[in-house]
Amino acid sequence: MIDHADDLASVQAATERLLHAIGTLDNAAVTQSSRLPGWTLGHVLTHLARNADALVNVLEGRPMYASAEARDADIEAGAARPLDEQLADVRDSAERFRAAAGVPADWSRTVALRNGVTDRAERVPFRRWIEVELHHVDLGIGYELEDLPADFTERETEFLAARFSGHPDVPATTLSAADGRTWTTGGGADGGPVTVEGTPADLLGWLAGRRDGGALTVKGGDLPKLPPL
């Protein structure tokens, strides 16, 4: 069962970890390459801030972004700002999200995200948690997939496995973590069943497009090629 209040607390804790880590950087770091192709650390930080504001829009019944072009332009426009501005923006936008999510509301209602995607309002805090945790890793400043909270890793693996379930390009696949947990995904493409085994961090990294799957063990076929998120 989803507990949006508990997820909001997790978002806050993840945000504090992120802010502390950003605070150890200097202005030169903002222009350095992140782990996301074509994006500097400044791009990632600006995206995190604008995503918080976009999720405020979602919670308050407005379009998540004015357009895909406006989203991209906002990220590009903010990417080169000095560190103190980036830090303040991430902090202030996170507070705006926390305030909007703290307003009494019908958390069972359906809300609209990007590209025609809808979800229950109660899942929005978890979606924000995903953004903060994975993009903290994307910064490449010492926070790795292995450092993610165990409950987050499990839930995000389950979330992504469900996202690819039945996908026409992914054969039937069983994910098997070293600690004994399993998930199923795919099933819409010919071939399989394939079993993919590895550590929780490596499985999540592969599902989330953060690792190439080279550390995983595959049985019953080749490692499936996952579509982009």
TrEMBL record:
Keywords: Isomerase. Residues 12-139 form the Mycothiol-dependent maleylpyruvate isomerase metal-binding domain. One of its GO terms (molecular function) is isomerase activity. InterPro entries: DinB/YfiT-like, Maleyloyr_isom, MDMPI_C-term_domain, MDMPI_metal-binding, SCP2_sterol-bd_dom_sf. Residues 147-227 form the MDMPI C-terminal domain. The keyword Cytoplasm does not apply. This is Maleylpyruvate isomerase family mycothiol-dependent enzyme.
